[in-house]
Specification:
This protein has 282 residues and is an alpha/beta fold. Helices cover 39% and strands 17% of the residues. It has eight helices and eight strands; from the N terminus they run αβββαβαβαβααβαβα. It has helices at 2-7, 58-68, 87-101, 116-130, 149-152, 166-177, 211-224, 249-281, and strands at residues 16-22, 25-31, 39-44, 70-75, 109-114, 138-142, 200-205, 229-234. Helix 2 (58-68) packs across helix 8 and helix 3 packs across helix 4.
């Protein structure tokens, strides 16, 4: 099912793709047409930590990269059940750190992801902060799966989503968590501390049972008193409807809006740094 959905997303004509390896992890590099980049988008794909691939997500990520005016990098992180927590998270820390070593500017970089990739994006940001690694300018979360504990406990609510059932989440969650405590922030970042994280741009779907995780992210951000969050919920839509960007006007609108907001965070930080340098020079 996921392969069919991702295949339906077509990249803009003229998009350039290149397969490379970063810190031992295969990645897809995506350059939108009319290449004039505002920065770099690191995109962590969804698929319950067990499905999906960088190549499969080319189309949707190319659309988001074009909307943001950025080059995109899609890592092929190791998948469950063969690779359980914390393997994928540590791989993403290694990829990001290597990119920084190679000259990536965190002030013009954003990290985004959908579903499991959205949860991994948030967990990655927390891990980077905790280890004193320079944080990206912003985070983008699409229908983030960020509370695996309630799935392992069988407590996820049933909504009208035609694609995601709570029973599916209950099956996938333990395959990733393994023997680890599912309430660890690296697995379920809703239980983590949002203090000091980059601004978060989040989009969710009203009929998605996983949207309950977004409500917890809002609550945790508010409790931190420092985390900046913009949340847009699309009523009557389903989990990861963004994958149908080539078919649904709502999906196209969502990705254009997300790309613009992520770009604004990069632009705003660049302008602030330029102003600070000018003031310091006087």
């Amino acid at each position: 099912m996921l392969a069919m959905l991702t295949a339906a997303a077509r990249p803009p004509k003229g998009t350039y793709f290149k397969r490379v390896t970063v810190a031992g992890v295969p990645v897809e590099r995506v350059e939108p047409p009319h290449f004039a980049t505002h920065g770099t988008l690191i995109y962590l794909h969804g698929g319950a930590y067990a499905l999906g691939s960088a190549k499969g997500y080319r189309g949707m990520v190319a659309q988001l990269a074009a909307a943001a005016g950025m080059t995109a990098i899609i890592p092929d992180y190791s998948r469950a059940p063969e690779a359980q927590y914390p393997i994928a998270l540590e791989e993403m820390v290694a990829v990001y750190s290597r990119l920084l070593e190679d000259g990536l500017d965190p002030k013009t970089t954003v990290i985004a992801g959908d579903s499991a990739g959205g949860g991994l994006t948030l967990a990655l940001a927390m891990a980077l902060r905790n280890r004193g690694i320079a944080l990206p300018a912003a985070l983008g979360l699409i229908c983030p799966w960020a509370d695996l504990a309630i799935d392992i406990d069988g407590m996820r609510p049933i909504l009208r989503d035609p694609l995601i059932l709570p029973s599916m989440c209950a099956e996938w969650a333990p395959r990733y968590a393994g023997s680890s405590d599912p309430r660890l922030p690296g697995i379920s970042p809703v239980y983590g501390d949002m203090t000091g994280l980059p601004p978060i741009v989040m989009q969710t779907a009203g009929d998605d049972p996983i949207s309950a995780d977004a409500d917890k992210i809002e609550t945790t951000c508010a409790a931190s008193k420092t985390a900046l969050l913009h949340h847009r919920r699309f009523d009557n839509m389903w989990h990861d409807f963004h994958l149908q960007v080539s078919l649904l006007p709502e999906a196209r609108d969502a990705l254009v809006d997300l790309g613009a907001r992520l770009r604004n965070h990069v632009t705003d930080r660049s302008q602030t740094n330029t102003l600070q340098r000018k003031v310091a020079a006087k």
